[in-house]
């Protein structure tokens, strides 16, 4: 038995990857692999199974007692954000249209236990301009930010936040550029002046250590005044022997790597020839003691990621017969533990980790000793989830629009998309981000790289070795989180009169479509938690007896207190990742504005162009001499109607109108096909003898007292007040004194703050220039923030294209399984179709 146990022990590090100690999976798979390789007889297999069971049980108990490490790892769920704006550059007076995605950092699936998303807007000086609250449903929200025409040209910032996320140091901020064409020439303020070259070569040893007499993998970056030099030759030389060790070239990000068998007695330099000058830098000194983690390139399989752990002689002697814990983690969330024994006879250990035990995207593997001290660490990137594939097919094309069919190719889960439509040659969406980078890579980098989804695996690995946020120390604040997760709003109050047992408080709000009942506490207090209520919306409270009948009672409501407070001054200093190619592209854009179109910019005209909507119902003919004429219909009713109906009952019988009486109020809605969002108010504007009133005021008004009722379904002539239609009620002569008697049995109030209502339709601010060519650069065409694609069917979408022959779709999206999709689609459109 000891012999079999020793064999299992020697092979433990190689085959134990199927065992996760937090879940204690069966190890029979390991034994099967063992048997397959060595072709052992059945008796020995039985002995191995019995021995390995005992061994794994004791190892499990040992690892769980030794490796707790609660000083660093924790179980608190963290959030990640992605903001998709319809472009990245705006003119003053325009609107920023956006869609927000919020997911769990652990699972990459949409957040469901937080609904309150705060959108904070900061100026070029990082001072807070506005704070808005939006309802985040299943990890998604969308809305808009109006840009005043008085803003100065410069970089502004949008910060997404939740109250829970304030517990962690991972703020999400997106910079955007705003141009005031009346006060400055766009982008000329950021022109770089010529300065002397300052070449900097930085070295990053794999897993942070350089060991003597060992083949080390070394990564380097090459910069000139903080700009990474792409495709630049670098020579590595052994100065002791004057031999060339490696001749390499930086990639498009200014990164490179090479392998070097480091001799303790030798010294090495890197040499760069740039702009007729030569620059050299000596490689850092090596250590005699350390542990290296090499990431192996898995060419034949994507089911696992292999690592080679290499110990120096000193470390082998120090940790001989000790257990080392290989951990996979991210943002202090522990996902996987793999312990293995160190034997001084073996310098290298191969550790295969199955992809099911890895995070999707960024990971860190850290080696801890038995005292829970880290001895080596390495970041790496691997995509464990297959990204969504969607095929886009052009269908019908009209003069100003095109219909596109979206089809899911590799997923049976519905996918939610946000789509920005711009001309193909647009200059308003430079350096836009995408959802894959935002969730799988960017939160873990110390620099803000524009886009990495096109990078090869080797380039991503080099990027992580040089740009990953460094772990200063493996410690965690043991105090519980200060800020709690929030879902909706709360209304709290007290009953000021005596009440009987089983009495309850009723809350109703026709604007928010809410009817809630809650208990009254012994101290006469009550609370309605988790309410989804719009900003400045009305609600009513009443006390119900045990039979559910409203009784007279005094009610006091406490002032709403907003626990979340945004920072008045934004802290945002993330370095921009620039390469030589990006600098050239930026200067070309600036030169073009200066030399060709600067005079046109003085004549920019902001024109609102509304996305094409479904036509209003043509039931409302012209009524002369009246505001909104041509859109108002006079309803006809006779004596029979007057005898048998109130105003509410009569309106509810009319086509296109829903009128409802409730115990505490009433509602009148003009139904029509529109792009309503969750937040939109649906109440029609009611004018009683020309004076605005609410539906409750006419709830019990007899139709016999009414002279006329007219409906303006479009609300034309009444601006935003009439966006849901207008109903005119004129009383008969002598009925002007009709008044509703206030109901003293309920309490009426409005929210101090609440969720912001999103616009139902996209309205583009179209920039008009003297040259049609410039519309290719500056026109904004369409924005679709919430488009669902269903599997196994065609999903058609009609988008506005204007007069452009070539347009571009910037698409981001995800499904509830955490699979992501991003794509930029070029759509050439033939004339005459």
Give a written overview of the molecule:
- The protein is built from ten helices and 49 strands.
- The protein is mainly β and 833 residues long.
- The strands form 14 sheets. The chain has a five-stranded mixed beta sheet with strand order 2-8-7-4-5, with no helix packed on it. Strands 29, 30, 32, 33 and 44 form a five-stranded antiparallel beta sheet that branches.
- The longest helix is centred in the first third of the chain and has 25 residues, at 42-66.
- The radius of gyration is 34 Å and the shape is elongated.
Summarize this entry quickly.
The chain is mainly beta and 833 residues long.
Secondary-structure blueprint:
Blueprint: H1 2-15, H2 28-38, H3 42-66, E1 79-85, E2 89-91, E3 95-104, E4 116-122, E5 128-135, E6 140-146, E7 154-161, E8 172-179, E9 199-205, E10 214-224, E11 227-228, E12 233-238, E13 243-249, E14 255-262, E15 268-274, E16 277-282, E17 291-295, E18 304-311, H4 313-319, E19 323-330, E20 333-341, E21 348-354, E22 361-368, E23 374-382, E24 390-397, E25 401-408, E26 415-423, H5 435-440, E27 447-448, H6 457-467, E28 489-495, E29 504-509, E30 514-519, E31 525-531, E32 538-544, E33 550-551, E34 555-557, E35 575-576, H7 580-601, E36 605-610, E37 632-634, H8 639-644, H9 647-652, E38 657-662, E39 665-670, E40 685-688, E41 691-693, E42 706-712, E43 726-731, E44 746-750, E45 763-768, H10 775-778, E46 782-789, E47 795-800, E48 806-815, E49 820-828
Helix pairs in contact: 1-3
């Amino acid at each position: 038995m000891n012999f079999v146990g020793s064999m299992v022990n020697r092979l433990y590090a190689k085959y134990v990857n199927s065992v996760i100690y937090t879940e204690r999976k069966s190890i029979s798979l390991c034994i099967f692999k063992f048997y397959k390789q060595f072709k052992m007889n059945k008796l020995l297999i039985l002995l191995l199974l019995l021995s390995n069971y005992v061994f794994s049980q004791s190892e499990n108990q040992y690892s769980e007692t030794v490796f707790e490490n609660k000083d660093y790892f924790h179980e608190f769920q963290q959030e990640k954000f992605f903001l998709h704006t319809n472009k990245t550059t705006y003119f003053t007076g325009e609107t920023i249209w956006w869609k927000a995605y919020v997911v769990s950092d652990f699972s990459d699936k949409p957040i469901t236990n937080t609904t309150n998303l705060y959108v904070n807007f900061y100026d070029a000086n990082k001072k807070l301009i506005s704070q808005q609250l939006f309802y985040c449903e299943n990890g998604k929200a969308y809305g808009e930010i109006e840009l005043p025409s008085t803003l100065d040209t410069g970089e502004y910032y949008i910060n997404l936040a939740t109250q829970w996320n304030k517990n962690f140091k991972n703020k999400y901020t997106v910079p955007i550029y705003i141009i005031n064409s009346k006060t400055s020439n766009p982008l000329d303020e950021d022109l770089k002046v010529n300065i002397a070259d300052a070449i900097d070569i930085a070295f990053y040893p794999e897993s942070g250590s350089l060991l003597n007499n060992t083949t080390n993998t070394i990564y380097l970056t090459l910069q000139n005044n903080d700009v990474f030099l792409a495709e630049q030759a670098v020579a590595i030389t052994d100065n002791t022997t004057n031999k060339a060790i490696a001749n390499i070239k930086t990639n498009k990000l200014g990164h490179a790597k090479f392998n070097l068998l480091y001799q303790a007695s030798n010294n090495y330099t890197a040499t760069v020839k740039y702009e007729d000058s030569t620059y050299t830098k000596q490689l850092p000194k090596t250590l005699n003691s350390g542990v290296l983690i090499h990431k192996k390139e898995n060419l034949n399989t994507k089911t696992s990621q292999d690592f080679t752990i290499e110990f120096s002689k000193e470390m082998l002697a120090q940790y001989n017969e000790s257990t080392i814990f290989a951990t996979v983690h991210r943002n202090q969330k522990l996902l996987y533990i793999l312990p293995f024994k160190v034997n001084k006879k073996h310098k290298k250990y191969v550790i295969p980790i199955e992809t099911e035990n890895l995070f999707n995207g960024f990971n860190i593997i850290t080696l801890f000793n038995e005292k829970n001290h880290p001895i080596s660490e390495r970041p790496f990137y691997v995509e464990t989830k297959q990204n969504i594939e969607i095929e886009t097919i052009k269908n019908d094309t009209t003069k100003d629009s095109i219909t596109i069919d979206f089809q899911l190719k590799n997923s049976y889960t519905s996918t939610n998309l946000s789509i920005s439509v711009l001309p193909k040659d647009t200059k308003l969406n430079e350096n836009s981000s995408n959802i894959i980078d935002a969730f799988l890579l960017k939160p873990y980098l110390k620099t803000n790289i524009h886009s990495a989804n096109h990078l090869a695996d080797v380039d991503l690995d080099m990027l992580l070795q040089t740009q990953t946020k460094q772990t200063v120390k493996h410690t965690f604040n043991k105090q519980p989180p200060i800020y709690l997760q929030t879902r909706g709003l709360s209304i709290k109050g007290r009953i000021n009169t005596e009440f009987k047992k089983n009495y309850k408080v009723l809350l109703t709000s026709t604007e928010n479509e809410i009817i809630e009942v809650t208990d009254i506490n012994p101290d006469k207090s009550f609370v309605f938690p988790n309410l989804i209520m719009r900003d400045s919306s009305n609600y009513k409270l009443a006390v119900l007896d045990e039979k559910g009948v409203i009784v007279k009672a005094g009610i006091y409501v406490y002032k709403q207190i907003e626990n979340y407070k945004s920072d008045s001054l934004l802290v945002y200093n993330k370095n921009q990742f620039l390469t030589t190619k990006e600098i050239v592209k930026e200067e070309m854009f600036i030169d073009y504005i200066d030399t060709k179109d600067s005079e046109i910019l003085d004549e920019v005209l902001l024109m609102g162009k509304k996305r094409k909507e479904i036509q209003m119902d043509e039931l409302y003919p012209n009524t002369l001499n009246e505001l909104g004429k041509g859109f108002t219909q006079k309803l006809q009713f006779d004596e029979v109607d007057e005898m048998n109906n109130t105003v509410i009952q009569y309106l509810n019988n009319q086509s296109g109108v829903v009128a409802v009486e409730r115990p505490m109020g009433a509602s009148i809605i003009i139904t029509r096909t529109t792009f309503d969002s969750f937040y939109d108010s649906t109440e029609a504007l009611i004018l009683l003898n020309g004076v605005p009133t609410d539906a409750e005021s006419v709830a019990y008004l007899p139709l016999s007292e009414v002279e006329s009722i007219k409906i303006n379904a479009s609300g034309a002539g009444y601006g935003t007040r009439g966006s849901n239609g207008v109903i005119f009620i004129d009383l008969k002569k002598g009925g002007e004194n009709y008044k509703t008697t206030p109901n003293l049995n309920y309490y009426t109030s409005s929210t101090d703050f609440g969720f912001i209502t999103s616009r139902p339709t996209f309205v583009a601010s179209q920039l008009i220039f003297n040259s049609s060519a410039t519309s290719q650069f500056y026109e904004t065409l369409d924005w679709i923030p919430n488009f669902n694609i269903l599997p196994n069917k065609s999903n058609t979408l009609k988008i506005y294209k204007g007069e452009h022959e070539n347009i571009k779709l910037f698409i981001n999206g995800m499904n509830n399984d955490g699979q992501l999709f991003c794509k930029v689609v070029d759509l050439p459109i033939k004339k005459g179709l």
